[in-house]
Amino acid sequence: MLIVMLLVIAFFSYRSLRFSSPENLQSILVAAAPFALIALGQTLVILTGGIDLSVGSVIAVAGMTGAVVAKANPGQVWLTVLAAMAVGLLAGAVNGVLVSRVDVPPFIATLGMLTAGSGVAYVIGGGAPVNGLPAEFGRIANTEVLGLQVPVIVMILGIVALGVAMRRTSYGMRVYAVGGNRVAAEIAGVNARRTLFSVYAVSGLLAGLSGVMLASRVISGPPNLGQGYELDAIAAVVIGGASLMGGRGTVWGTALGLLLIQTLNNGLDLLLVPTYWQDVIKGVLIVAAVAVDVWSVKRRA
Prior knowledge:
single chain; 301 residues; mainly alpha; two-stranded antiparallel ribbon; 2 strands
């Protein structure tokens, strides 16, 4: 996949001089940042053999909540961010309880949260976006530190922190163990229910943070914010080499898959390729990645 990434960059650099400009590269990173957070959470879930379809709706609910809190408390930026993250954590915790305690299949549990969350987002705004927000709300995602916007810094820190945690800590080992063979993990002393609960809670928390950053970028709280984002997050994880059966995949692979998708989106936009053709290309890439994964597993077996 790294070779594919380099070939894509070389192709777009050849076709468009604007693509390799520093401004455009920064645009790719800014666009990737909110997706990176939900893709990181999705990585943990998929490593356990599950899936989280609710992150798109959680983004919308968290973004709407953050907008409402910001409007009622102008100047209280941290309160806005904490409120959005709390909403995301609550949604993730509900998913975690349903999957780990009630034994609802992850697809059904998170699909229910996807539907319910979409409705709650519209309820919060009374069916309309939350507008008229203070200027401080826009600074959450549009402030620069050392030449990088805050979402990009959050993305980098998130990738490094989670990457180290999954490779160097016992928590990462437990996640891989549960996804690889839950029965064997429990026999070895791993609390599988607690591990499953934690990955869905983390996924919801990161989706909440992503929601407030996305809403801050547009300085508004649209109820359809994040619609369809769960599919791009899953695509990034799968393209990055994770197995949908669980137990195999890396945070670094997810980061590479995410950057590949965002690079494709950016390059195809510069070449004025219609959106529907972009969807076709991404769909083919996802199927190809899964096909290669299945082929490699059979070859090793």
